Amino acid sequence: MYNGIEIEKGLLNDFTQAYSREWLETNGIGGFASSTLSGANSRKYHGLLIAAQHPPVGRLVLLSKLVETLITETAAYELDCNKFEDKVHPV
User: Fold this and answer.
1) 2 in any annotated domain
2) First to last CA, the chain
């Protein structure tokens, strides 16, 4: 049985829409992981591993993101995403 959230494929193909939607996964003791659907972090505490030393304060971002590239015999595909002031990489 699948209890997750279903996301339409078209939403992920539109950066503006994917960047405006966020996800959050908590561990119940003050730590969490969160980001946007696009994979580009938009907040100070977005990351894949945020630990709470003294919940609810004292949080540390231990792993902000992973830079992933899928390499085939003919091409390389960047799977991560970053939003800069004037552009998004990769496009």
Assistant:
1) no
2) 36
